[in-house]
Amino acid sequence: MLLALLLPAAPTSLTGTTIRINSAALSYVSDVGKAPLQQALKVMVPPFLDQSGDVHLPIRIQILDVHVPHLDLKFIAGFGIHLMATANFTIKVFCIPEALELMMPVALTADARVAQGPIRTPVVSISSCSSNFSPASVLGDNNSTSPELLILVQKHIRAILSNKLCLYISNLVQGLNVHLGTLIGLSPVGPESQIRYSMVGEPIITGEYIALDVNADLFLLGQPITLTLDATPFVLPWPVGTRGTMATMGLSQQLFDCILLLLQKAGALNLDVTGELVTRQFPKPMPIVLKVHLGATPVVTFHTNNATLRLQPFVEVLAASSNSAFQSLFSLEVEVNLSLQLSVSKVKLRGTTSVLGDIRLAVAASNVGFIDVEQVHALVGTLFKKPLLAHLNALLGMGIALPSVVNLNYINPEVFVYEGYVVVSSGLFYQR
Q: What sequence ranges are listed for the domain Lipid-binding serum glycoprotein C-terminal (predicted)?
């Protein structure tokens, strides 16, 4: 709750992102979750008071090790996740005359509800939990302990563990919730701009996946920007992407439109280009500067297996005067279409561009009379196109953070372009 108060407020808007965690991800979580579960189940067992003799002696009990050979997770449609696990407890009983080691198997089951938390992140809570104990077996060849005492010791251990195991599982889940809370962290988009993701409603849970509808809040200089968005909600079809993958993420065209608008507002797409100009009007080489400013928001378009980006920059051509100041010669309205290739690295969506077709331009204004558009076109081709692509690809190569939590990366990702949206199919890797 404190974190929610510290974060800058943002207007609610639907930028159209859906994350599906599929059944394959549960198998991965089952594998990586065994070690934390084993650690969580190492509970303290108080001494057992032996009342069989004349003197009541406390018998110290220690859990030496917990091994979880089996952990299985399944989706419960409309609710959350069902957990089934088996754990083998190695227990040392410091009785007289000789210490005793026991192996006690336990079967654990629990149902966990997955919901939207107060700070718009996923929250997991244990709704029901039970433990079923099997008879303990004595390790080694110790036969000095009386069967009656062994029965009483097991009864004591079961009473303690049955009260504590579910509590410790619940504590483990609370630690998971802290980790899931990092979804709402701010990530840089470009200079002086950030993006923050958060859930916009309760998760949708089926027997195949859990789906989170996620909104992107955009910030410029620490302040939220207000976006005019299409009210039509983004719906990710099922199935889509790579079959059997751990995570499937749908990114609507509206999300890309908003990010490009943010970059434009931040001035990240503007650039200055220096060079020399040789034309009929300026027979002597002279230093010039091309100031490229994007007055219009870039337009991204997605068709099946094809992504394009249209830029309409305003280019002002300036030349150095005798006092080393720059004076405006003329200005151009330019339109250029780019092919956009998308890829994912760790938790970032990256892009590279290349020019499609010819660059179209028109003279917007001139302070030097008539401008030969054909000669200017050659100028644009040599001084404008290459620096523009280098600048744009450097910016897009930095990557836009995708929804993620700390220490969790996307691996072996595949990017698919569909009509009006992009899908990322990926494995998941948790880095401790």
A: 241-426
Where do the domains of the chain lie, and which CATH numbers do they carry?
23-182 (3.15.10.10), 236-242+253-430 (3.15.20.10)
Place of tokens 């010669």: 329
Query: What is the rounded distance in angstroms from the CA atom of residue 182 to the CA atom of residue 178?
Result: 7
pTM of the shown model: 0.85
CA-CA-CA-CA torsion for 41, 44, 46, 52, nearest 10 degrees? 50
* Bridge partners (DSSP) listed for residue 195: 187, 218
What gap in Å lies between CA 117 and CA 328, rounded to an integer? Answer: 56
Rg of the chain in Å (alpha carbons)? 32
Q: Which residues of 351-364 are buried (b: 16+ CB within 10 A; e: fewer)?
A: bebeeeeebebeee
Half-sphere exposure of 169 (CA within 13 A, CB side): 25
C-alpha angle 172/177/178, rounded to 5°? 100
Identify the CA nearest to 381 among candidates 323, 332, 327. Answer: 332
**pLDDT tens-digit readout, 234-280:** 889 988 989 999 999 999 999 999 899 889 888 888 888 876 555 54
